[in-house]
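Researcher: First entry.
Model:
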Amino acid sequence: MLFMMLPARAQSVPEHTRLVNCPAVMELYLPGDYYFCIGGHRLADGYARAAIDYFERAAGWGHKRAQYVLGLMHFQGDGTPSNRPLGLAWMTLAAERHDRDMDAALAYARRHSSKVERQRAEHMLAEMWPAYADEFTVRRAATRYERETRDLRRATARDPFSRVYIAGLGQGSASSMLMRMDQRADRFFDGARSGDVRLGPLEVVDEPRALDHGDDMKEDGP
């Protein structure tokens, strides 16, 4: 089972277990978030191979939780044949931002790995670095997010109270929708991006209606 080997402080609940739906529109704005969400549902449904494919796609957009879960799955052989060096490489990438849980998982895994496994992990990490490290993925993800939110930011600058609709996310004032999306982006980037980037096809709503957040953005628990 995932997380069974970890020290207590590293046994955080994967983010995907708190997500109810994965709005397709998020693939345009925050693809890492979207692919991780889909991967979480595939894993929960018992399709580990499909989950790994989605987690790898999320990891390519700098999603640290996806890299963390990939590390655990490969290191422990959870849903895939055990490959401890590959698991170590993924966990090293996940720990780039020094999250306490991810640091603890990496330290534990390294202590329980052989010298040969750690050396193999270093070689794998060197090959994976250009595709998955923050210095490459964060810039790409932030540029995409900024480009796709440009229209919403312009609408907010013109009239923050204008009503807009974003497919899959609902409607509200331009400023409230922008704030909602930026909060989600801040959780995704977790301080890794430099500068502010602020989403995508939107429509002006003629008749204001009560904002319906819908189920797409719900989270279980506080």
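Researcher: Second entry.
Model:
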Amino acid sequence: MEEYRRLYYNSMCNQSKFGYLDSWQFLATASHSLSFILIPLSFYGSYCIIFKTPYKMRRVKWIMLNLHVWTGILDVMLTTLITPYFFFPAACGFPVGILAVFKVNVKLQIFMGQCCCGGLFSSLLLLFENRHNSLVTSKFRIPNNTFRIIYFFFVYLYGFGLMFPAYLNEPNQIEAKLTILRTILPCPTTEFFDSPVYVLILDTNYVVFPIILYIFIMGIQLIFFVVHSFFYLFCISSKMSNRTKDLQKKFLIGVCIQVAIPIGVLLVPVIYCVCSILLGYYNQAMLNIAVLFISLHGMSATIVLIYINEPYRTFTIRLFRKTDHSTANNSTQGRRFATTFTTEKTIVF
């Protein structure tokens, strides 16, 4: 490594092109700063779901909370605990979060991050299956709770074990880093030499294609639950009253919007990272920004959750109005006190 740096990197690579945005310090500072907004907002969203969900939504309450908790955990992992500094298109990097400070094994951190992603997508599927099961009465639904538990056990297990083939092919770290420098990434940032970079796998096919397959399999199921639910509500006659059906339509559309916007925020940086690997394109600043954008997924999810669901939105508006009212009262009392004090002062003097 040092020989490569001395003989090739220092003379052939333009290190001046890397700025603050390319550094791990930028990623760590920006991510940790975001956590001061994201974490309280996530807790507030959880509070709304637990305490402000109306009784009529009781069947979906804990399903929504499950999804929200997984979203919050992923946010905490990205902004605080792990905060990965990637070197895509090579499947390597190093963490700059709190767990790195406590010397937690990097491989374990990768597994934790992967479990968070798997848990998030599995919870998303669980939400729409719940809606589908509540609406559809035909044979195209999961028949009982026992089968549902087994089904989602394997769904979550698949998400947690997604990267298992890559873990089985862990390369020799020194040789792998030299191979990356010679074939994939000849001129990375200096962090590649100065930091404890971990190479997950040399053949990125072990990472990219399992992820693509996972997204495809989960996407097919998700599309089925969503499309069939809409088809059942809009195209098939049922025993539901018109009022109930209208409420179900409104709620299902709201759930779709609630999910679509955060997923859109998440997909943009994820697609960039995948394309970076497939096309062999390296831009460290863009990678850092992509990680930050992935972190914003949770914030957008909470904001949309509060805005779309009327009970949460109403509670939040009342909370702000109450705060403004209290501030106004305190201000009025302060002015009265000042007037009284001034009057008394005038009388005394």
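Model: Note on the second entry: Residues 21-320 form a domain with the Rhopdopsin 7-helix transmembrane proteins fold (CATH 1.20.1070.10).
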